[in-house]
Please model this.
Amino acid sequence: MTDLPSHSRAAAQAGGAAEPSDLAQDVGAAGPATAQATVGAGRSESGFSLLPAFDGHHPPDRELIDDCVHCGFCLPTCPTYLLFGEEMDSPRGRIHLMTQALEGEAMNSTMVRHFDLCLGCLACVTACPSGVQYEKLIEATRQQVERRHQRTRADRLFRELIYRLFPYPRRLRLMTLPLKLYQRAGVQRAVQRSGVLQRLPERLRSMEELMPPIPARGNPVPAWTPAAGAQRARVGVLLGCVQRTFFSHVNAATVRVLAAEGCGVAAPPGQGCCGALSLHAGREAEGMAFARGAIDSFEAAQVDAVIVNVAGCGSAMKEYGHLLRDDPQYAERARRFSAKVRDASEFLQEIGPQAERHPLPVTVVYHDACHLQHGQGITRQPRATLQQIPELTLREVPRERDICCGSAGTYNLLEPEAGRELGDRKAHNVLAADAQLLVTANPGCHLQIQASLRRLGRNLPAAHVMEVVDASIRGASTETLGS
Model:
């Protein structure tokens, strides 16, 4: 540990951090363009509304709001407070806005702007000494915003583009065909050199920047993969949407690891989106429909556990019981289902290693995905999983470890200026670890940090935790890891 005064370390630990350096540094240090995003004036996201802020369908719970004692421990953990230094862009400030809305304040574009700027990273949940369930408050608030606030036409169209595309794997696969041509025919390089991208709207520029390399072919996962040796468990695996389209190799690695550890693995072929992106954006009915579909798919597979290798998906699936609490046909089924959901590293630590790990002489830096660390409270398990690999050296992000990278589902598309600034900060801090490989457990983090590294002109290969374990079990070279 660094040589810091004991009272500074104690304060950081009280806020959920191991060290003061894990929390926000240089509060209010956003660049001019990013700082302007908090105002909302003239931005395409801004709309107008004269309606009462909240309707009677599950507004933010007053009892949960009253748990907040306004202590301020959340402030140094909040990415938007870090960027803007603005009280209303902190969890405490947003809870104050929710209180005003419950007391009859009308919803307006300024109020909505502060809610929209929240990444939903939930670092404040980990930091809060009073146990405020901010995740439930912001989720309920976003649902109210989507029902009651009239966004501008441009904003509505862009959001529809995102949510009519990304949660649908078949639509994503169709999109990969022109993207392959764009990347491999030299068009992308020519466009980037021409400066055309600088003339595009920020949101479209962000989509291009974050685009992953399109694989030549996918790595389809069989509907059933038998265990290697005696079967210890029968598990299901979530294939995901973006994950199965752009990171199918991660799914394939996850299944190989589970099979090597004595698990029969079912991948229900009819499974769709888990609903995480929709729920994160306040699209309640859409998210509930996806959740019901996921429950149906995995119930039919009759599995002991549902394994998820995407942090945001796992966090959402563990909350199905709350989401479907009013549905008489699904409420109890949802609670049972959520009790079976496990992050891949969480599950591996529960059952214990069986397959031999071969040496991997590589130094890695592990980045905590927010919805794994804060949403699910999982920090020890991924590190323990990596440390079980011989000759692997694990390093931590040395500064602002607990601050979001700016991906946050679709945040980096909807709020590109703030997302880009947070991504670049994270990339600088990751590089300071002086590692050979970046390891994380979420495709959004992977894409976000890689895009920032490219902007910085730096190269650092990245891999999922399960890819690293798979390489060790197979005895593969470290050169096979990363992209």
Observations:
- The longest strand covers residues 233-237.
- The mean pLDDT is 90.
- Residues 356-480 form a domain with the Rossmann fold fold (CATH 3.40.50.11810).
- The beta strands are 224-225, 233-237, 263-266, 305-308, 341-343, 362-366, 392-396, 437-440, 462-464.
